[in-house]
Request: fold
Amino acid sequence: MKESEGRSVDDLVARVRSCGQANGKVVPSPRDRQSFETAAAVVVVRIRWFSLFFVGTTTAIMATSMARSFLQVASTEEVAPKLRVVQIEGLVILKIIKHCKEFSPALVTGQLLGLDVGSDLEVTNCFPFPTRDEEEEIEADGANYQLEMMRCLREVNVDNNTVGWYQSTLLGSFQTVELIETFMNYQENIRRCVCIIYDPSKSNQGVLALKALKLSDSFMELYRSNNFIGEKLREKNLSWMDIFEEIPIKVSNSALISAFMTELEADTPMTQCDFDRLQLSTTPFMERNVEFLIECMDDLSMEQQKFQFYYRNLSRQQAQQQAWLQKRRADNMARKAAGEELLPEEDPSNPVFKPIPEPSRLDSFLITNQIANYCNQINGVAGQSFSKLYLMKALNES
Amino acid sequence: MASSNQTVLQFTPSPTSLTAKVHPLVMFNICDCFVRRPDQAERVIGTLLGSVLPDGTVDIRNCYAVALDIDYHHNMLSSHLKVNPKEVIVGWFSTGFGVTGGSALIHEFYAREVPNPVHLTVDTGFSSGEASIKAFVSVSLSLGDQQLAAQFQEIPLDLRLIEAESVGFDVLKTTMVDKLPNDLEGMETSMERLLALIDDIYKYVDDVVEGRVAPDNNIGRFISDTVASIPKISPAAFDRLVNDSLQDQLLLLYLSSITRTQLSLAEKLNTAAQIL
Reply:
C-alpha cells in the first residue's frame, strides 16, 4: 500500500512538472521549486490520510461481510440499541399494585427482575422491599434481604436479573433528587434500568397509573459532571423536559393465565373499573393537586430568588471590576506621564475578581417538571370531568 | 361422644361455614410458577399467605412456590413477613385437579404451621375442560383415639377478583397488550358500556310494553329502583349545578395553562438570555 502510494505521489509530481513544462514554462527556479515541493508534501500527507481512511472503511466493510468474530460481537455490544419498550407481565402489575396500595399513603419500593432483550426490557417478576425504619443496621439488613429473596426466587426458576425498581408515588410527586440519585446508583451496575412508578391515588378513578421512566442520556452525562449552570445547559440544549424519558409500556401474559382470566372474568357488563371511572366527584383529588401545585410554585419562586440574588451580585461585581479597571487605567496614564513603570491591568488576588459560583439549576428543573406534571394531571382530570358532566346532563335530559 | 364400650366413627367438629377469597395475584403467581416449573416436575406446590377476616372468611392475598424443602419454605416466609407482617400462612396450594394422594402428608405439615389450613387446587391442565379452582379444608376422621384418615372437604371460594377488575380485564386476559389505555380512552370505553346497558334496558322495556317478552317482576323492580335512585332536581337547579361544575373545571384548566405558559417563559428567561 505504502509503496504504491509513494509511487503514485511521485507520478503525480512528475505529471505536474511535465504539465508545467508542457505549458511552456522554464524549469522552476529554486524558490519556486521549494514551494512546489512543500505543496507536493502536503499532497502526500493528504493522500496518506485519505488512504488511511480508505483502509479503515474497507476493513470495516470486510468485517461486516465476513462472519463476526466474538471479539467484534463483544465490542459492538457496547452500543446497545435504544430502549424502546418495557414489557411487563400482568403478574408484576398486580404485585406492584398490591404492595403500593396496601401501604398507601406511605411510599414503598421494590425491585424488578427480568430480561434485557434487544430494544425491549422484559419485566417478568418483582419483589417488594420492606419499609425502612429509622434504624442503623437496616442498610445491611436490606442488602441481606435482597440477596436472600433473589436466591430463593432463582430456585423456582424466576429470572434472576435486576432490571430496575418500582416505587409508589403520591399524585405524581416523584421528581426528586433522591430518585435521580437512585437512578445513577442503579445505572452504574446495570446497563439499562427503568423505574416503574405507580400512583395509588389515581387508581380510585379507574386509571391504571403506571409509568416507566428512565433518565435521558444527555442528562446523565451532565449529572455525572455535576454541572448545572446556564451555559452548559444551553450548550447541551437541555431543558427541564429532557430529564426523564417515559418509555411505553406493553403488557404480556402467559397463555395459561390468559386462559384462566378469560374463564374467570365475570360476565357482568360493568366492572369495578367502570364504576370508578364514572365517579362524579373529583373534588378531593383536584383540591390536593392544586395544593401541591401551589407548594411547588412557592418552591420555584424561592429558586428564582436565588437566581436573582446571583445575578444582582454578578452585575454588582462587574460594575466593581469596571470601576477598578478605570481607576487602574487612570493610574497608568498618570504613571506614563510621569515615566514610571505601568501596573498590570489584572489583579487576580483582588476579591473583586473572584468568580461567584452560579447556583445549580437542578432543583429548579425538577420543580418545573413537577409543576408541569401537576398541570397535566389537572388537565387530564378536568377533561374527564367535562365528559362526565355532559354525559350526566344528557342522561338527565333524556 | 365416644362412649367407652362402643367405638364410633367420628368427625372432629367441622369448622363453621368457612369460605375463602382469592386475590388475583395468587392466581397469577401460581400460573407463573407452573410455567416456570422444573423440567421433570408435574405439579407445583407452595404456601398461601393472607389473613382470616373477622367474619371467618380466609382472605388469600399472596403466595410463593416451595421447592419441596423446609428450609426454603422458612426463608421465604421470613422474607415475606419482613415486608408485610400481617400476612401469615393460611394454607397451601397445588396445581392439578382436586386432591391427590400425597396431599394429606403436605397438609399435615401445614397443619403444624397453622391451625386448619386451606388447600387450594388450581387445575392448570384444564383437565375438566374448564378452569377449576377449588379450596378444601381437611377434617380428620378418627376411630376412637386412632387417627384413620383425613377427609378433604370443599369450601366455597369467592373468585370475583375485584382487584383484577380495577386493573381491567382487558389488560390481564390477553397475552399481549401494546399500550396501556390512557385516561380518556378508558373513559370512552366505560361510557360505551354504560350506553350499551341503557340501550339494553330500553329494548327490554319496549319489548315488555309491546308484549314480545313476558314481564319479569324482579327486573321491573330493579329498573324502578334504579330510576328512583336518581335524585329529583328541578331543571333550573340541575343546570346551575352542571354549569357551576363546568365553570370550576374551566377555571382549573385556565390556571394550569397559565402556569405552563409561565414555565416556558421562565425557562427562556433563565437559560436563553444571560447578559454578561
